[in-house]
Specification:
Number of strands of chain A: 2
Oligomer: heterodimer
Shape of chain B: globular
Radius of gyration of chain A: 26 Å
CATH architecture of the largest domain in chain B: Orthogonal Bundle
Low-confidence stretches of chain B: none
Radius of gyration of chain B: 24 Å
Helix content of chain B: over 70%
CATH topology of chain A: MetI-like fold
CATH superfamily of the largest domain in chain B: MetI-like
Number of helices of chain B: 14
Strand content of chain B: under 5%
Mean pLDDT of chain B: 88
Number of domains of chain A: 1
Structural class of chain A: mainly alpha
Mean pLDDT of chain A: 87
Number of helices of chain A: 13
Distance between the termini of chain A: 56 Å
Largest sheet of chain B: none
Largest interface: A-B, 104 and 102 residues
Shape of chain A: globular
CATH superfamily of chain A: MetI-like
CATH topology of the largest domain in chain B: MetI-like fold
Distance between the termini of chain B: 46 Å
Order of helices and strands of chain B: HHHHHHHHHHHHHH
Low-confidence stretches of chain A: none
Number of strands of chain B: 0
Strand order of the largest sheet of chain A: 1-2
Amino acid sequence: MRHKGVSYAKYGYIFCIPFVLAFLIFSLYPIVYTTVIGFTDLKGMGKTDFQFLANPFQNFITVLKNASFQESLKNTVIIWIANFIPQILLALLLTAWFTNHRNKIKGQGLFKVLFYMPNIITAATIAILFYSLFGYPKGPVNDLFMTLGIIDEPMYFLINKTTARGIVSFIQFWMWYGHTMIILISGVLGINPEIFEASDIDGANSAQTFFYVTLPNLRTILLYTLITSLIGGLNMFDIPKLFLLGGPDNATLTTSVFIYNQAFSGSYLYNRAAAASMIMFAIIAILSAMVFFIMRDKDAAMLNKQKKRLQKELKKAAKVARRAAE
Amino acid sequence: MKTEKKAIRYLGKIIKYTVCIFLAILSILPFWIMFMNATRSTYEIQQNSISLLPSKYFLSNIQVLLGKSFNPLKGFINSMIISVGATACTVYFSSLTAYALVVYDWRLRQPFFTFILAVMMIPAQVTSIGFYQFMYRIHMTNSFLPLILPAIAAPATVFFMRQYLLATLSIDIVNSARIDSAGEFHIFNRIILPIMKPAIATQAIFSFVGTWNNLFLPLILLTDKDKYTMPIMVSLLRGDIYKTEFGSVYLGLSLTVLPLFIVYFLLSKYIIAGVALGGIKE
């Protein structure tokens, strides 16, 4: 702000110095360093000296051809999709119920607090808690299922690839649907109430209002949820690392656990881990850029559409009101 | 016709409440079983692993738990130091950066903001190998500083603080302070920070919980047992030494959950409101 000829602009730069310095030292430099290590022979516990490889892309090729890496990439995608789709569907359903102003659900505040609760608990704790809950042959889940008559004899959930992956997906789903729901509800509350009034006047029922008014208006927030969940999902570490240590038979090995195992166990292959990190970084960047691109393009078009729709609905509402007056 | 509609509406209501109550139980039950089993002996748990009521083996479970490598007090103190330090860094410097973005008119303001948006999405895992090597070379592994100082640059918090300042700060306040010839730094510390208290409180909670729960970076940096944080302590419960001590494992887990539960139920209103605000990104 210019004020009485004094320029304060320099303070803008000064106040950003701590942020910029911390970013350069603790984010940018490590990223560059990781990239460089990806092209070298750096391995062995506690080693820091390295030499560039004759074929600079050797590590990247090795990683991409590595069966465990391919498996981990596949697992990560499967676990993420199997958690995200039910998560977003349930969150949308609950959002529709909780924002329905015609028949309100009582005790909403309490439900929100309880649904969100797992999200705040240490993921490491939750991983080990679920490991204990799914114990075999005696464990809370087996006991519960047998009492309810769902299964006849104890099941060894943790040794089966499908159930193991399924449980990891379930834990992620269970930890995150409350969070997604709260974000979607806040999105609905942010929609101009006049649109809802208009659809009310038009005689739309709850389902119609939800599908034709609420959902289209939630698009930006849905995409935001998608992208944050995608980035979080592709970096999933705590749960798969501690729940079954990547097992059984690598079924819950995610890329982050793969990177960790390469770099910090066995023969300490920092170079391979760095290459794998950069591959993941590239995948995340490409996917994010794609979603951002879709978001940006559609946004302007959507705003226009919204405006037009709003005008139309207002006109309609006015007509109805006039008719009623006559 | 009318009664039919009423019946459908009634049925819908029953379904809604059933689903909500089921989900609520799903949230509570695992933790309930955990707390109850923390007070039960291994033998009792092997006989019947679900009990809705506590037993009387709490003290013997504590003895077994503490007799091995699990040290919840040490983990608690270490996690506390890191989380408080990181949270203080995050809220103070994010507020400062956001203030610079809102109040001053400098040439790189817009590009800098775009830059912050772009780096918001970089996850820690992709930088970890370089970060570890860097810290190892300057002998900073087993120090808390590499876990605290990076918190100075928290792009998502800057973004939130900027939105808050744009909505609440009137430039007149700053100008009138200037007329009283207060320095720019002084204005920020004495006038702006108090205005930002609600935003700082919200962001402090999330920063604190996020740092507290972080496993990845502490796991690769801290190898000294005396430096272990709470999540690393928890990971010890997965090891062989506790394999048959079911009661103690549940107790150890309960001890790590308890502080979070207390914080959550005291502040749940603000936390839920904070999550909701985080979703509004225009």
